[in-house]
Specification:
about 140 residues, alpha/beta, 6-stranded mixed sheet, two-stranded antiparallel ribbon, 4 helices, 8 strands, about 30% helix, globular
Length: about 140
């Protein structure tokens, strides 16, 4: 079971094939819960994660830009939604492999629950990229 604030760690074991090792210098994918309604209902950890990420990917940039503006966050912002997730996933995985830290938010609540993100998180896991969850205290992820 993975809970709020947890990380799915990369292992240092060899991956498939002789002599191949898993990436060590890859970036981190942060799955960040955002407020449902009141912009004040966001955790300090979520704000710090957004401020310190190289790229923020959002279900709808028009909605996320309001949250970012409220907290004066000016990081690169790009869309990731049901209509583009298949082709954007490879691009995002490549950014992570280059060492970029990426925060992933949905319009409201937690990505992957009823929003886009399942494909991205699975691809990140397949590529041995660390995934961090910055959730509201009452939310729990399970396998």
């Amino acid at each position: 079971m993975v809970t709020a604030g947890s990380v799915i760690p990369k292992t240092q074991e060899p991956s498939q094939g002789a002599g191949q090792t898993r990436p060590v210098n890859s970036g981190k994918l942060f799955v960040v819960a955002t407020p449902i309604g009141n912009l004040e209902d966001i955790s300090i950890r979520a704000i710090d994660t957004l401020k310190n990420s190289d790229i923020i990917i959002a279900e709808d940039t028009r909605i996320t830009v309001r949250l970012l503006g409220r907290y004066k966050i000016k990081n690169k912002l790009t869309s990731y939604h049901i209509n583009n997730e298949r082709y954007k996933t490879d691009q995002i995985i490549n950014y992570l492999k280059e060492g970029k830290n990426i925060a992933f938010v949905s319009d409201a609540g937690t990505p992957c629950i009823s929003d886009p993100g399942y494909i991205l998180v699975n691809e990140a896991r397949k590529n041995d990229i660390n995934i961090y969850f910055s959730l509201f205290p009452h939310e729990i992820y399970s396998n």
